[in-house]
C-alpha cells in the first residue's frame, strides 16, 4: 500500500489529467503540449529506479495512445466512463496487451456468452500452468542449479537460451491470464504473440513478438520519425531504442534495442537477394530453414545483453556466446 503514497504521484496524477484534458481540447498549441507532457511521463517512468505502482507503465502507454489518437482524429471523443474503463481495466494493467482504444470496445460482447467465458477459463488455467510450473518451478530450478556463478564461463549460449525461454513463457503466461480474465467480462483482447520462433527474418520476428508494444512503437515512434525525417533506417533505430528503454533506462537495454534495429535493417536488405525469392523447392526449403535458425540464433544472442545486470558482465556474456 505504501506504493500508493509515493511522492511521484503528487505530479503524476495531475500530469495524466493534463494529458487527458489536452486530448479533448482544440488548440493550435495542443501538439506541442501533448509531446511535452507525454515525453515527461515517459522519461520519468523509464528512468525511475524505485518501485512504481503496478500497471503504471501500461497506463502511461494507453494514455498517450488515447491522447494522440484524439489529436490525429483516429479516436472519437468517448464518454468519461469509457475512457476510464480503457485506462484502468485491471486484467490488462500488469503486463498488457496494449489493446487499441477503438478495438477494445468494438470487440466487447454486450451479452453473456458461455463459449467466451469457458474459453477464458481455459486460457487462465494454461497461463497459471506456464507461470507456476514451467517458469517458477522448472526453469528457475535449472537456472539456479547450473548457473549459480558466472554464466559466461559455463555453457553461456545455453544459459541465454534458457533465460530467453523463461522470459517468453513468463510474458506469454501473463498474456494468457490477461486475455482469459478479460474474456470473463466479455472483452476479446488481441494476442500478444503470433508464431515468433518460425520467422525467417528479424523484421518478421518483431511482427509476431510482443505485438501490442510493437504496434504502439510503430504508431507513436516509427511513423512520426519517418514522417519528419523521411529516413526509414532512422525510424527503425528510434523505434527499437524506445522499445529497449521502455524495459529500463540502462546501457544494457539501449544496446539490446540498437542490436535489434541493426538486425531489422540488415534482414530487410538481405531479403532483396534472389536466394530468398527462388522458386526451386529444395533451395527454398533450405533457405527458409537456415533463415529461421539464423533469426532465432540472432535473437537469443541479443538476449545476452539483458540476461545479466551491468554493461561489462553483459559484454562478457555476449562475447562468450560467440566463442
Structure write-up:
With 323 residues, the protein is mostly helical. The chain folds into three domains: 87 residues, no CATH class; 71 residues; 127 residues, no CATH class. The protein contains 13 helices and no strands. The N terminus is likely disordered.
Q: Main attributes?
A:
single chain, 323 residues, mainly alpha, 13 helices, disordered N terminus
| Structural class by helix and strand composition | mainly alpha
Query: Rg to the nearest angstrom?
Result: 21 Å
Strand content: under 5%
Number of domains: 3
Number of helices: 13
Main sheet makeup: none
Number of strands: 0
Mean residue pLDDT: 82
Q: Give the SSE order as H and E letters.
A: HHHHHHHHHHHHH
Identify the quaternary structure here: single chain
Low-confidence stretches are 1-5
Shape: globular
User: How helical, in percent, are the residues?
Assistant: 55-70%
Short structural description:
69% of the residues lie in helices and 0% in strands. With 323 residues, the chain is an all-alpha fold. Mean pLDDT is 82; it is low at 1-5.
What is the strand and helix layout of this fold?
Blueprint: H1 9-24, H2 30-47, H3 56-72, H4 80-88, H5 101-106, H6 114-146, H7 156-184, H8 202-205, H9 211-229, H10 232-247, H11 251-270, H12 281-303, H13 311-322
Amino acid at each position: 500500500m505504501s506504493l500508493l503514497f509515493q511522492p511521484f504521484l503528487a505530479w503524476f496524477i495531475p500530469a495524466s489529467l493534463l494529458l487527458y484534458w489536452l486530448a479533448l481540447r482544440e488548440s493550435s498549441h495542443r501538439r506541442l503540449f501533448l509531446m511535452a507532457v507525454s515525453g515527461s511521463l515517459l522519461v520519468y517512468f523509464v528512468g525511475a529506479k524505485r518501485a512504481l505502482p503496478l500497471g503504471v507503465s501500461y497506463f502511461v502507454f494507453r494514455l498517450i495512445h488515447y491522447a494522440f489518437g484524439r489529436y490525429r482524429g483516429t479516436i472519437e471523443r468517448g464518454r468519461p466512463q469509457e475512457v476510464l474503463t480503457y485506462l484502468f481495466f485491471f486484467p490488462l494493467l500488469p503486463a498488457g496487451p496494449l489493446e487499441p482504444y477503438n478495438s477494445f470496445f468494438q470487440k466487447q460482447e454486450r451479452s453473456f456468452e458461455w463459449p467466451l467465458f469457458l474459453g477464458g477459463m481455459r486460457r487462465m488455467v494454461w497461463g497459471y500452468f506456464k507461470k507456476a510450473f514451467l517458469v517458477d518451478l522448472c526453469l528457475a530450478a535449472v537456472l539456479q542449479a547450473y548457473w549459480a556463478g558466472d554464466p559466461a564461463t559455463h555453457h553461456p549460449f545455453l544459459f541465454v537460451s534458457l533465460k530467453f525461454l523463461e522470459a517468453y513463457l513468463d510474458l506469454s503466461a501473463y498474456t494468457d491470464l490477461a486475455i482469459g480474465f478479460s474474456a470473463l467480462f466479455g472483452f476479446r483482447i488481441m494476442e500478444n504473440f503470433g508464431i515468433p520462433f518460425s520467422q525467417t527474418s528479424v523484421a518478421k520476428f518483431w511482427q509476431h513478438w510482443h505485438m501490442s508494444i510493437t504496434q504502439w512503437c510503430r504508431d507513436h515512434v516509427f511513423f512520426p520519425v519517418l514522417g519528419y525525417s523521411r529516413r526509414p533506417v532512422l525510424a527503425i533505430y528510434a523505434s527499437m531504442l524506445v522499445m529497449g528503454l521502455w524495459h529500463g533506462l540502462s546501457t544494457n537495454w539501449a544496446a539490446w534495442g540498437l542490436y535489434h534495429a541493426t538486425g531489422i535493417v540488415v534482414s530487410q536488405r538481405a531479403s532483396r537477394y534472389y536466394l530468398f525469392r527462388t522458386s526451386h523447392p529444395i533451395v527454398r526449403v533450405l533457405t527458409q530453414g537456415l533463415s529461421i535458425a539464423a533469426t532465432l540464433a540472432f535473437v537469443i544472442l541479443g538476449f545476452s545483453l539483458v540476461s545479466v545486470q551491468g554493461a561489462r558482465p553483459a559484454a562478457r556474456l555476449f562475447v562468450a556466446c560467440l566463442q
